[in-house]
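Try this one yourself first.
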């Protein structure tokens, strides 16, 4: 139990909780990193944009910016600084064109398409997510985007084209906070470990056999560190996810399964999350190197249409 509730002097007389409850108890109570990080974020100052935080360490709505208008270098520099600090930025009421969407996303880096998902006319840079009664959503599992690539995405810019009257929110989890919240012995255990990420056991499962084998040759399994270091901030973040991570290298299958199951659960901690309710022309811009996301699938059979530009990244270290 926590330090504020010591066991009675005669601890032997107290029934020992079952193992599953002991594991749950390990995660209760305060999380010092959250306070420290919240204080750091509160100390940041921005002159050209407004920010409304959604959670302690992740997610903030940007105010006072119209993405239809050209942004000067100073304003964009503040947006980029806020992006690195808050990991996810949200913009409301941005009725931008496909060309404006692509142009703004490209200021963060080169854009890339997707090996499977359909794109719309904007140089092939915008991926379409259109869900309705016939095409249901399947993104409701915690993940970072395209970690099956040798160089996973730096980030993504997602815009709501059509939203249901209720539901269809997206949650984001701060994987830096998730790493910082681990027990010291767990950090020591995973330091230096690598895991295999595999297209074939995720998107590949929905392809015909011949197409799956062709894509598998194009996108062979890749090895990434279990904990990656952010190339711009130097922060460490958990970098495994249940959609694309297949196994941990160098350990038995049983140990790999148990370890991954433990690490996957860290994204599910509410203290590390923010939740965004979509409105038409709202935008989410997230750092794929530091967060995972989960698209809530509670709106079927209603229609939900989103467009995403993906920013190319580098090899995780």
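Now uncover the answer:
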């Amino acid at each position: 139990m926590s330090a504020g509730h010591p066991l009675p002097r005669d601890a032997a007389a107290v029934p020992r909780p079952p193992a599953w409850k002991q594991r749950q108890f390990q995660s209760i109570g305060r999380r010092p990193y959250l306070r420290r990080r919240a204080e750091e974020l509160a100390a940041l100052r921005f002159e050209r944009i407004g920010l409304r935080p959604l959670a302690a360490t992740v997610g903030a709505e940007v105010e006072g910016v119209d993405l239809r208008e050209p942004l000067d270098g100073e304003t964009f520099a503040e947006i980029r600084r806020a992006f690195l600090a808050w990991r996810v930025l949200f913009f409301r009421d941005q009725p931008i064109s496909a060309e404006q969407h692509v142009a703004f996303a490209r200021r963060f880096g080169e854009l890339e398409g997707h090996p499977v998902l359909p794109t719309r006319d904007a140089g092939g840079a915008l991926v379409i997510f259109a869900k309705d009664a016939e095409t249901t959503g399947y993104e409701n599992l915690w993940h970072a985007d395209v970690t099956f690539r040798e160089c996973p995405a730096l980030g993504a810019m997602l815009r709501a084209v059509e939203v249901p009257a209720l539901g269809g929110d997206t949650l984001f989890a701060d994987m830096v906070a998730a790493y910082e919240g681990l027990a010291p012995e767990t950090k020591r255990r995973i330091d230096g470990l690598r895991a295999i990420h595999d297209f074939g056991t995720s998107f590949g499962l929905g392809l015909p056999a011949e197409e799956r084998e062709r894509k598998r040759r194009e996108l062979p399994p890749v090895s990434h560190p279990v904990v990656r270091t952010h190339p711009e901030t130097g922060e460490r973040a958990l970098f495994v996810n249940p959609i694309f991570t297949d196994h941990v290298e160098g350990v038995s299958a049983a140990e790999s399964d148990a370890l991954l199951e433990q690490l996957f659960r860290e994204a599910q901690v509410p203290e590390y999350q923010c939740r965004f309710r979509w409105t038409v022309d709202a935008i989410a811009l997230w750092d794929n190197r530091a967060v995972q996301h989960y698209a809530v699938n509670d709106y079927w059979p209603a229609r939900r249409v989103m467009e995403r530009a993906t920013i190319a990244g580098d090899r995780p270290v």
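Discussion: The helical segments are 19-25, 32-42, 73-86, 98-106, 175-180, 184-190, 209-218, 253-265. The chain has eight helices and 17 strands.
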